[in-house]
Protein 1
Amino acid sequence: MNKDILIKFNNVTFAYTSYEDEEESVNTPVLTDFSLEIPRGQFIAVLGHNGSGKSTAAKMMNALLVPQSGSVTVDGIPTSDESRIIDIRRKVGMVFQNPDNQLVATIVEDDVAFGPENLGVPPEEIRVRVDNALKAVGMYEFKDREPHKLSGGQKQRVAIAGIITMQTDCIVMDEPTAMLDPRGRKEVMDTIKMLCDELGITVVLITHYMDEAVKADRVVVMNDGKICLDGAPREVFSNVELIKSLGLDVPQATELAYRLNKAGFDIDFNVLDEEECAGAIFSLLEVK
Amino acid sequence: MIKDITIGQYFLGNSFLHRMDARMKIILTFALIIAIFVCKSIPSLLLMVAITVFLVAVSSVPFKMVLKSIKPIAIIVVFTGILNLFYVTGGKTLFEWSFIHITTKGIFTAVFMAVRIICLVVISSLLTYTTTPTMLTDAIERLLSPLKVFKIPVHTLAMMMTLALRFIPTLIEEIDRISNAQKARGADLDSGGLIEKVKALIPIIVPLFVSSIRRAYELADAMDCRCYVGGDGRTRMKQMKLKGSDFVSLLVTAVLIAGLILLNHYFTKVI
């Protein structure tokens, strides 16, 4: 097991004291005594209902927010060290929910070049990085287009390409598929899979969709600023009752098997996707 | 429909105007605009018209689009023409009736002004037809960069322009969405007099501001994440290099402007 820890939360406490997004109101504690270790190369999904602190935790991973007590370190650098903030953001990039609010340029390729331009990368190398990143996310043929003429999924892939060009070790995604249609969601999920499998980038995916979380190496379920469940998807989603009591769903395949089980059938409900579920039902029918 | 709008009025093409360095294009456009107002004799004005026609012809911008750029100023052209016709006096009087005097100089001035305004608009719209907004803001940033000496934040201004251009279509979509939402709630946006109509805009403008401010915060976070710290230490993917052809254009323009001045000098000035 790779024990190289990239991001480490150490007993972090955080409360919002002013305006922020609609999830949190005035003086609300968001994270209490929160600890989490993210090893390099892992694809980790963070689940939790609104206000569970998952977005706050995400923003702490690249020093957009710093903990009020405790510490967050990225590759050993504490995020509270203002002088090294650029070093941290070179290691951890972030993709937000609304694709419209994170694209800065009027041409796709100029936007993708924005990050490395800020880092002072030589022009010829930016060109190479931009072309590679756009090819990686499958948006190369759109490089001269205007972002507002793209679909949501395409815009989000451009945003991801904009982080890839910065060659960060980790990409944190805060509900990147929440505003997309099913097709866009699939495009983005395929891209995310490609990031970890082919580019070896650590991915932290914050999501509402259980079917997306299933694809991760590890699932963390948050509730009221604390971690409730942490483990491989199969392990986590076997706690169907606990997950439901937190106001979350389990993947649809798990749900079906679980209900069959409750209805008295002898079926293992520890299944994650359609295929496994079909297999379980098949063996159930065969026994009969 | 709204999704189809193009920012600015760039027309995709590959003419030599499209390929010309944007900085050079801006400078030459300004030079020509000044030259327009130097023309005071008939041959010099004709040369100016010829230059304009030539530029339109080689720009590969359809003639229809050029006409479209003149349309909104047609009324101004007519108005200045008429004004000059009646108010400029001098030369031979051709027609006189009570307070109306029409003189040769008046006619010349009217025609000159009309032609000048049309040339001005055509030449400056050729600039925006053949240059993308990104190239324009880039070029403006670089042309103004000497002003940094006077502590003018040139990069910040250029960044603001870029972001403004980037968010125009986004905000148009937003306005569309908000006005539909308000209509669905029974807001009446279309009837009533001017004052009622302006008042009816309030339920659109207030949410628009709120959402824009929220967008601004998110955009700032996103830019922070991408290590934006202002203009210092930034590089550019697209380098601007002056090519040989740009200098040829500069030379040709200089010769033409010299020609205009000479034509002015050797022929009678009619205005």
Protein 2
Amino acid sequence: MLSIVQISQLLQSAIVFGTVIMFGALGEILTQKSGNLNLGVPGIMYLGGIAGLATAYGYEHLAKTPNGFVSLLISFTAAFIASALGGLLYSFLTITLRANQNVTGLTLTIFGSGLANFFGGILNTMAGGVGQISVRTTSQAYRTAVAHFVQVGHVGEIFFSYGFMAYLAIILAIVLYVFLFRTRAGLNLRSIGENPGTADAAGINVIRNKYIATCVGAGISGLGGLYYTMDYIKGTWTTDSTIESLGWLAVALVIFATWKPLNAIWGAYLFGLLYWIYLYIPGLTRSSQELFKMLPYIVTIIVLLLVSIRKKKEDQPPASLGLAYFREER
Amino acid sequence: MARHSSGHERFLRIAKRDRMPKSRAFMIRVAAVLLSLVVSGFFILAVTKLNPIDVYKSLFAGAFGTKRRFWVTIRDTMMLLCISLGLAPAFKMRFWNIGAEGQVLIGGIVTAGMMRALGTSIPTPLLLVLMFACSFAAGAVWGAIPAVFKAYWNANETLFTLMMNYVAIQLTSYCVARWENPFGSNSVGIINQKTKAGWFPAIFGQQITLNVIIVLTLTVLMFLYLKYSKQGYEIAVVGSSENTARYAGINVKNVTVRTVALSGAICGIAGFIAVSGASHTISTSTAGGEGFTAIIVAWLAQFNSFIMVAISLLLVTLQKGAVQIASQFNLNDYASDVITGIILFFILGSEFFIKFRVVHRSRKGGRS
């Protein structure tokens, strides 16, 4: 059996992992509720990650005595804006120019990961030395745990040992839930995702709502990339495809959560748990560990199948998901 | 009631074009590519301060400068083309097969496994035929799984095939860990390096002739299949309207499963070519993201296999060229993804001007 310490460790790594994809998924839920299937989530998370890192790096180098909190504000804003711009590009192509959503999203993923790894590589070269940049002050600010301020034991660590963004993700999920399901504006947005023609006829501005939902959604998704660079890998950059696979996992989480923000909270932690569980199962060989890492995806497939076989109305994807809206075509 | 008819919509209206002459549509696309190269040029200028023309020159040299580079470019073009060919029928049917990456890997795993297991006991020509058949079948099965659920329960295929990619990637990691050679290297190494059993033979002194032959044959066959066969016609009908297809007596479920199985099968073949005809090893990067790029190729070519040849060549040339630029000017390879992205954005955007036209409405009651 696992000891208390091990369980606490497993839960903590699950929560940190889950937070990355929760941001990605929350943004994508908002986007998809407006009927846009944005497969650019991985690219957007890359954009958020690199924008945050680059601005923090710039600030730490320019300021004589860098202040962690200021740097945090700057990088947070930069990450959100950069990701939202990615969303804007996607919106312009798919909403205004009516390009195919899937293809545009995939292109955004190629573009975003290319841009981020390109500049990440340059930053690493500029940093010289060990060849990896590090924004220690900023990362420290992101990672200052709530537990820093209160005395907690092992059990307390499970709840209080994270930087502020882990809690921000939960708050965001709740806010998103209230917005989507308890406000008029949220109802309007959902109606666009279900049937834009009807929404348009009812006097809702389809184009504007789609634009806003997609750009804000992208901004939120990008925060996942920011959390990954600042907290998960502690303010450094590795030129690889980790963010991309996390981005796809975020897309998976949207399905798993059946497009409900509150489900995304526990879904994200469950994904984290499934992702790391192999470390705690005794007697696994290296090859069988790889099979265990399939679990989040298998579970998502099963949920997808159950949802489509049971056909419960409230679990379905938005009815117009992936389709461009063209008023003249009604 | 008129809340949504905001000011500018009264003067600008977007209308569908009837049909644009092919030559004009072609010119628009060329213009888009040229424009994107200009924008990419600015990007290069901004980050390198180098003359973009020089950069494009070395880009071209990077792709075709030496005999070896030329053949590598051709080899990778064939790979991308093969996957695009596989995706074409599925996409023409409006089945969003995002799972090419996984289907390629499955074909690759089967091929690598057979090379390892049967390399010593079966002569290479027979082995090649067997591997071809098995990777074809494996890709077909991998593709058919989401198709069956789509056909019978309407499970979202975009998301399902996407998940199948990662299942395939982990399956590949599993096989790599099982087959690793030498032990502890976390890679399979070159399979049958000494005996070259199960490798594509050199034809006319060129190692990749067989790759080219297989893929170009597929190109012609796919063109004929989609354009002139009954099945190709059924695909087109299902793609434009499932209800029409049903009304016309087409069994939509069967067509869906059959088409996507074929799509997966050809991607499986791409995996076979990648392992047996190119890298002679297997890893999670065997498909290397080409499964995603191929989606864009197939879509932009509007499923015409000959246009796919051109687009694949363009994209691979860019990738190869950018690698050269990167090493020459001390940048990194990812510049190629940025440029690819920019070009694709422009081509995607240009489709708008081919399909639609913007109508200016004068105040004095223009066309309504």
